[in-house]
Design brief:
Helices cover 63% and strands 17% of the residues. The chain has 173 residues and is of the alpha+beta class. Strands 1-2-3-4 form a 4-stranded antiparallel sheet. Strands 5-6 form a two-stranded antiparallel ribbon. Strand 1 and strand 2 form a beta hairpin. Helix 1 runs antiparallel to helix 4.
């Protein structure tokens, strides 16, 4: 009879360890989810959005229509609080056929199309659009991680409740 008790106790101890692990993982996932929600709330402030965007703007941008590659360099304060400050925080240039840097004082590249009409390319806007694309990718990943954590927490809670219910039934028997 004592051998039966020992074999009956082993799954209980093993089950208890799994139960504690499930509780710990669920609690950890809940803490991470709370941190993500807090970070999202803090980063929704426009000052942080523009500051983050300043660091996500790429070093170069190739205009698809003209084929010219443009580069940026810091020209002001990168701690922007508005879109206008963000756009003026950089100066833009390209390298011409002779290999020299040509600064775009107003951030606009002008050239003649094949039909002879003048085309204006807002270089700063191209850089900002690339930064916005990066931000959208980050937000998409952020949403996926948040959803997975929420699902994990729900599964963890259901698992813990089910194990607790099973444990209670065994005690009643």
């Amino acid at each position: 009879m004592s051998s039966k008790n020992k074999t009956a106790e082993k799954p209980t101890v093993k089950g208890e360890k799994k139960h504690r692990l499930a509780i710990a993982l669920t609690a950890a996932a809940a803490i991470v989810l709370a941190c993500l929600i807090t970070a999202a709330a803090v980063l929704s402030n426009s000052k942080y959005i523009y500051t983050a965007a300043a660091y996500l703007i790429p070093q170069s941008y190739t205009d698809p229509d003209s084929g010219v590659t443009f580069y940026r360099q810091a020209a002001g304060d990168l701690n922007s609080e508005s879109e206008e400050e963000l756009l003026s925080a950089y100066s833009y240039y390209y390298i011409d056929d002779a290999g020299e840097e040509v600064n775009l004082t107003d951030g606009v590249y002008r050239y003649l199309s094949e039909s002879g009409e003048q085309i204006n390319v807002g270089v700063s806007m191209g850089f900002v659009l690339l930064a916005v694309t990066r931000v959208k990718k980050i937000i998409a990943v952020f949403k996926i991680i948040t959803a997975l954590l929420a699902i994990g927490i729900i599964i963890g809670i259901i698992s813990c409740c089910a194990r607790h219910k099973i444990k209670r039934r065994k005690k009643q028997i």
